[in-house]
Predict the 3D structure of the following.
Amino acid sequence: MRVCLFEDRGAATLEPLALTRPAFDLLCGQTSLGGKQCQYFAPCEVGVLVRPFLADVCRLQRPATPVNDLAWLRAGPTVLVNGRWLPPAAGFTELPDPCVALVGDEVAYAVVGPEQLTYCSPNTLDDCLETWKQTLPHHPAGGRLVRYLWELVGHNAEQLRLDYQACPGPRGARPALAVVGPAELLLIDPTAQIDPMVVADTTHGPVVIDREAVVTAFSRLEGPCYVGPATHVLGAKIRAGTTLGPNCRVGGEVEASILQGFSNKYHDGFLGHSYVGEWVNLGAGTNNSDLRNDYGEVTVTVDGRPVPTGRTKVGCFLGDHTKTGLGTLLNTGTSVGVFCNLLPSGGLLPKHVPSFLNWWNGAVADNADLPRLLRTAGEVMRRRGCALTEVQAALYRQLFEQSAAARRQAVREAVARRLRRSA
């Protein structure tokens, strides 16, 4: 079976995380959406269709995978899979060719042949999906199509439980680790380092500690949760529903949150019901609110407009390479773009900060020195054994240009607010 993972126009509502990666690379549970989709279909070949500005980065990360390769796409019958789709637990059942499988009125995947793919490309894909919906037989896909980041956070605990069932390896406790709940719901890679006086609570779900992870004394891990490869948990409270991606450094308290990877929350502070990108640094004492005082519905700014979440517990969403200073306070439902620098002002910061902006002493300023930002990013990555490539730098330059209008508007609005307060 040939499978092509694609991004439709709905990927834009998964920003700021989807600014720097395809939608199918977002985490939910132990693995990415794309990982779950490939496990569902068990393909022999995989290609991807991504937004054009992400194509070069995608090729860098997947050198053996056809990326926006139309000749490969049209070479034979293919299952096109929406990168926002969270598949059901049951495996794929053969469907007639051609057809579309729907979640509600959206295409989760389409089984098509070369004749349907003649005019299909990243720029025409959404039109093709509409045509296929109108002309091809319909079937229920099951699962869910994710529209917003808080949905991934909301589904994370369930996916952690499902992913655990597919994990290989022996279950049970190590002598140095205390277990509350069923010991068979604890899975620790043999290469992980676990200090004495660590507690794993499996009462409500599995606890999985992946290869070369480090969990230091006085940490408490409440299932379902996942500690990714080479991640360090440093005397932290990891609450249920949390995924810590690879190479993170985590202290304090984290509840029902996803860290994509390579991010620091080394010190005390609370992070709850949130999704944090890569190369993010949360300074000591950074805290976010994930519940309004009146227990009301939380709204989040998405693509420039406020979106009601239908939820009372929603934290923050932080794009790649964003940093917070000592004692920063993030409001309920905060969305912050990439390469932002947030310093405390004695109160809650704005709920929406576009990419490449500073919040300095209660005022918004354009983070305009892009060469300096890239030098800092390169130094941060070098300290974890990674390098900032020219391909990645080119993506960040493009995002800088794309966000210029949003930055100017945010600065104008901040100045207008200050003038109104001083009048």
